[in-house]
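Case study: Chromate transporter.
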Amino acid sequence: MNQHLLKRLWEILLVSTRLGLTSFGGPVAHLGYFHEEYVRRRKWMDEKSYADLVALCQFLPGPASSQVGIGIGVMRGGILGGIVSFIGFTLPSVIVLMIFASLLHTFQVDETGWIRGLKIVAVAVVAHAIMGMAKSLTPDAKRKSIALFALIVTLVWPATYTQVGVILAASIIGLILYGQKTELEKAVTSKFPVSRTTGFICLSLFFGLLVLLPLLRGWSTADWIALFDSFYRSGSLVFGGGHVVLPLLEREFVPGGWLNEQQFLAGYGVAQAVPGPLFTFAAYIGTVVGGWPGGLLGTAAIFLPAFLLILGVLPFWDVLRGNPKVASALMGVNASVVGILIAALYHPIWTSSISSPLDFSLAAILFSMLVYWKWPPWLVVFTGAAGGFIISLLSRM
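Here is what the predicted structure looks like once written out:
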């Protein structure tokens, strides 16, 4: 391994770990943090490539924000870069949840003031991300209309597969509106450093494990195979991000007696409070069921589908989006992503975070820190946590 690659991997690890320590607020907020760090500050990718990657990961099953992080890591440092990016972003919350599971009987979950502040941080971060993306991805009235369509449909019909349906519809609209305009067909080449053979192998593994694991579970009495199968299927069959996986995990583990309802809800409360992807809830469940080895197994199993899918699809992505018709469809898809993000800004981020004039005031301050005063995101996060704590104290007076 040459020194240049080692330096690049170390850089990816440091940046992703900082994001893993400070990225509160769920998958949409994570995309905002990624946009600020990777696109605006470090310029590891351009706006269009980032939007294309987000659109693809929204369309694939699994944790969209984690897949975006893995994809950026792979583009920056190959497969090792993707692994390092994943470890940095995921490990902080995995450690916290595993420790909490180990200390379940002595640690109490509470809706504290700093958690309230972190929810408000998410409002400012997502609003800032939407501003930047909307400027480049919806520059004309047609694409603004597509974004509006996506916004309304996503809010009015908040079903599991609504986002997938909206993205499909937007791709057709984009093809119809822009398919004949050759000046809009140019696509940015991302030079994805993974071969198509590797991509094909990853896709084969994804579908193969989805079929074989339930069969192995039926033939074997080993608990670890049953655990791996439950987590792998939960990570493979989820569209819409971390919150959607929770009912799947509940059905997999609570009725079967792996853990009780109180243990499940306690872990869910802590998972909401820690940074990083909500899929790390698997680390908590795995630790309750099988100790630290179970926690590591659960984490690996639930994120493995995300790895296999992103490594399987991206080697073919440049060829697809370089096609004029696909490029036209992506113009509609990217505009729809802006609408989907605005919908998510309203619900659940705004509706669960802003409940008083003080909350709105703190959100305005944090937004100003990001947009006008150019404060680093990590400092905005800590300011928001402190502000939420102060608001909670004032509310009790």
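For the exam, be able to explain this: Residues 1-104+112-397 form one domain.
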